[in-house]
Amino acid sequence: MQRHLLFSAFLLLGVLASPTGATTLCKNATGTQDGYFYTFWHDTGANCLHLGRRGHYRLAWALPENGNLVAGMGWKTGSPTRIVRYRARSFDPGANGYLALYGWTTGPLVEYYVVDNWGGFTPPGDGATLLGTVDSDGGRYRIYRTLRVSQPSIAGTATFAQYWSVRTTRRPMGGDNRISFANHVAAWRKAGLVLGTRGYQVIATEGYGSRGRADIRVRADRR
Fold this sequence. Notes:
Helix content: under 10%
CATH topology: Jelly Rolls
Strand content: over 45%
Radius of gyration: 17 Å
Shape: globular
Number of strands: 16
CATH class: Mainly Beta
Number of helices: 2
CATH architecture: Sandwich
CATH superfamily: Glycoside hydrolase family 11/12, catalytic domain
């Protein structure tokens, strides 16, 4: 009876835990798993995030037109000098998905992306302002700024800037990859894009109006 009640409580929260320490989330949530911060947000559809040990996560998404999902693991507090390593065991972005170092700052409120891989749609899309390029970790990235008006954010519905570094060619998956965030921060600053107080920072999978899947493990060399 006690087991049944506990299982029911987890279902109500959209959380399922296994004896191996893995956790499945089917509702929007943030928290920590095995020392790593995680975030999971989606606005529609029956999608779940599976959290494993030592920075491992996987998910498959199926989103209707205009449906959006963001999931990832990393750190509750971002760092402008963090060197992040990750391995994508698999990444199928479908028509509109991408894999990125992703985070937020406040004062100013900024949502930022360092995009390494994407699907049929290349972010950030039409209306973005190209501000230059930066060479980092064996690739060249284009720098963009976009503006989101009255959209969901870590501060509620708000208007905020998005900063982007988007690799000019998709980074190969399957091996160990590195993102030296300090290189992007310096290039953004040179382009007039200033970050504020650090919010969370994760290796994120984002999907929009599409189907896809990802299997990712994250770690950091240093802050």
